[in-house]
C-alpha cells in the first residue's frame, strides 16, 4: 500500500496507526483479534475514512465489523477444569501480579520514581544479590516485601526526568553498575529524546484511538522478550491534551490499553499517578483516605487491578519517628510516609507500612518492623501514637553533634524525589 504520508496532494493523509490497521485488514483477521488487542474501537472510524478515500480495504473492514468481537462458543465454562486454576504469578509477592496493570499513587515529590526504579533494578537483577550489600537489599525491599521474583527485563518510561537525573538516580541505587551491566534494564529519559507522547488520541469523529507512537512502542516491548515490568511515570505525561482526571471514558480507554499490554507481555505494568494535595497535618492517613485522594475519575483506579498509595505522616509523628531512629537532619520535611495497597482484585497483603527516606539515595525504605520493635507496640497505628509525644517535644531544627545523622541526612548529597 505504501506510505500514506507520501500520497498525492488530493488524497487525505492517513495517520500511521490507521495505515497499519488498513494493512492488517487485508489479511485473514477476525474482529475478535482486534478486540483482543484492545483496538476494536478503531475499526469503525477507520472504515469511514477508507470509504471516503475509496480504498480497496473497505470490504474487509465491513466484514470485520459485521463479525462478532467475542466467540461465545469458545468460552463455555467447561474449559475451566476443576482444580486446574493457575496460581497467581507474583512480580512482588502478594502485592503486584504479573499480567496486570497497577497504580502507584502519591503526592508530588514523594519518591514514586525512585521506588519504581528500585523495583526495576530488582527485576533486572533477579536472584543475583551481588549488586548491593545484604543490609542494603534488606532496606530496599520493594514495597516492604521480600524479593522472590525471577529475573526478567524491566523497562522504565520516565516522562519527566532527563538523562542526567536518571544517571544520578542509577548511581545512587546501583552504585557499582552491576545491574546495568546485566543488560536487562531499559530506562528511557523521554525529555532527552523529544518528550513523552500520548497513548491515545481523539480521531476526526471524536473517538479515542491508539496513537502510532504507542503502537510502535508496544511492538518494541514485544520484541524485547521476557519483559516482566513496564513503568509509566507519570501517567499524566502520556495523556496528551486528554483529561484523564475528569473524563471517565479517557480513564477507561487508557486502563484498557495498559491492561491489554500487561496480559500480552505477561508483565506488570506500573503507572505512577499524582494525588490531590493536602497538608500533612490535615490530610490524615489510612486506606480510605488514600483512595479518596487519588486524583481524577474513579475509572482510573477501578480500571486497574491494584493501587498502592503513599501519604505523608503528620509532622509531629514524623519528627518523633526521626528522633527515635536518630535521623533528625537539616531536611526533615517529606521524609516519613505511610503506604499500603488500597485496592486489589487479588488476595494480597494490605498491611500498612512506614517508609523513611534515605537521604543519601532518595529512596523510601520500609522501617515498619523496626519502629514497632523500638516502641514495643502491637502495630503501626500504636507505634505512631507512641512517638507523637516525642515529636511534640522535639525541636524543629535538627540536633547538633550527631555525625551519623548528618551522614544519613545526606548533607551535600542532594536527592531528587519524584
Tags for this model:
single chain, 418 residues, two-stranded antiparallel sheet, 17 helices, 13 strands, 38% helix
Strand content: 15-25%
What does the average pLDDT come to? 83
Helix/strand-derived category reads alpha/beta
* Backbone CA Rg: 24 Å
Give the number of helices.
17
Query: Could you give the order of strands across the largest sheet?
Result: 5-4-8-9-3-10-11-12-13
Helix content: 25-40%
Q: What is the total tally of β strands?
A: 13
Query: Which stretches are poorly predicted, pLDDT < 50 over at least 5 residues?
Result: 1-14, 397-415
Major β-sheet profile = 9 strands, mixed
Distance between the termini: 45 Å
Summarize the structure.
With 418 residues, this protein is α/β, with parallel strands linked by helices. It is built from 17 helices and 13 strands. 42% of the residues are buried.
Folded structure, characterized:
- By secondary structure, the protein is α/β, with parallel strands linked by helices.
- Helix content is 38%, strand content 16%.
- The protein is built from 17 helices and 13 strands.
- The chain has helices spanning 16-26, 31-36, 43-52, 58-66, 112-125, 134-139, 163-173, 178-181, 212-224, 248-265, 280-283, 287-293, 298-303, 315-325, 368-375, 380-393, 403-409; strands at 90-92, 96-97, 101-106, 153-158, 185-189, 200-202, 208-210, 227-233, 268-274, 306-312, 336-344, 353-357, 364-366.
- The strands form three sheets. The protein has a nine-stranded mixed beta sheet, with helices on both faces.
- Strand 1 and strand 2 (96-97) form a beta hairpin.
- Helix 15 (368-375) crosses helix 16 (380-393).
- It starts with 15 loop residues before the first helix and ends in a 9-residue tail after the last helix.
- Mean pLDDT is 83; it is low at 1-14 and 397-415.
Amino acid at each position: 500500500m505504501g506510505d500514506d504520508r507520501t500520497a498525492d496532494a488530493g488524497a487525505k493523509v492517513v495517520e500511521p496507526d490507521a495505515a497499519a490497521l488498513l494493512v492488517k485488514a487485508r489479511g485473514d483477521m477476525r474482529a475478535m483479534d482486534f478486540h483482543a488487542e484492545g483496538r476494536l474501537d478503531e475499526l469503525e472510524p477507520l472504515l469511514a475514512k477508507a470509504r471516503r478515500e475509496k480504498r480497496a480495504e473497505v470490504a474487509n473492514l465491513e466484514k470485520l465489523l459485521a463479525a462478532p468481537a467475542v466467540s461465545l462458543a469458545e468460552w463455555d465454562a467447561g474449559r475451566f477444569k476443576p482444580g486446574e486454576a493457575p496460581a497467581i504469578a507474583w512480580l512482588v509477592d502478594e502485592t503486584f501480579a504479573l499480567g496486570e496493570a497497577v497504580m502507584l499513587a502519591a503526592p508530588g515529590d514523594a519518591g514514586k520514581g525512585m521506588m519504581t526504579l528500585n523495583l526495576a533494578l530488582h527485576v533486572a537483577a533477579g536472584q543475583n544479590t551481588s549488586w548491593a550489600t545484604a543490609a542494603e537489599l534488606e532496606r530496599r525491599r520493594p514495597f516492604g516485601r521480600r524479593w522472590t521474583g525471577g529475573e526478567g527485563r524491566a523497562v522504565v518510561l520516565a516522562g519527566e526526568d532527563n538523562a542526567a537525573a536518571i544517571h544520578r538516580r542509577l548511581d545512587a541505587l546501583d552504585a557499582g553498575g552491576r545491574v546495568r551491566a546485566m543488560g536487562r534494564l531499559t530506562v528511557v529519559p523521554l525529555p532527552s529524546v523529544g518528550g513523552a507522547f500520548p497513548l491515545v488520541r481523539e480521531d476526526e469523529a471524536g473517538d479515542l484511538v491508539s496513537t502510532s507512537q504507542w503502537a510502535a512502542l508496544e511492538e518494541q516491548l514485544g520484541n524485547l522478550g521476557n519483559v516482566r515490568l513496564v513503568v509509566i511515570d507519570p501517567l499524566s505525561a502520556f495523556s496528551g491534551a486528554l483529561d484523564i482526571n475528569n473524563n471517565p471514558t479517557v480513564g477507561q480507554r487508557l486502563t484498557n490499553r495498559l491492561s491489554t499490554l500487561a496480559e500480552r507481555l505477561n508483565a506488570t505494568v506500573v503507572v505512577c499517578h499524582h494525588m490531590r494535595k493536602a497538608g500533612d497535618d490535615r490530610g490524615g492517613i489510612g486506606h480510605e483516605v488514600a483512595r479518596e485522594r487519588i486524583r481524577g475519575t474513579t475509572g482510573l483506579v477501578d480500571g486497574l487491578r491494584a493501587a498502592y498509595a503513599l501519604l505523608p505522616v503528620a509532622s509531629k509523628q514524623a519528627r518523633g519517628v526521626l528522633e527515635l531512629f536518630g535521623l533528625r537532619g537539616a531536611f526533615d520535611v517529606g521524609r516519613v510516609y505511610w503506604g499500603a495497597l488500597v485496592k486489589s482484585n487479588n488476595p494480597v497483603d494490605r498491611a500498612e507500612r512506614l517508609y523513611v527516606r534515605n537521604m543519601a539515595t532518595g529512596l523510601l525504605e520500609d522501617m515498619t518492623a523496626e519502629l514497632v520493635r523500638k516502641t514495643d507496640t502491637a502495630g503501626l497505628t500504636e507505634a505512631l501514637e507512641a512517638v507523637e509525644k516525642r515529636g511534640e517535644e522535639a525541636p524543629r531544627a535538627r540536633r547538633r553533634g550527631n555525625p551519623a545523622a548528618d551522614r544519613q541526612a545526606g548533607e551535600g548529597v542532594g536527592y531528587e524525589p519524584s
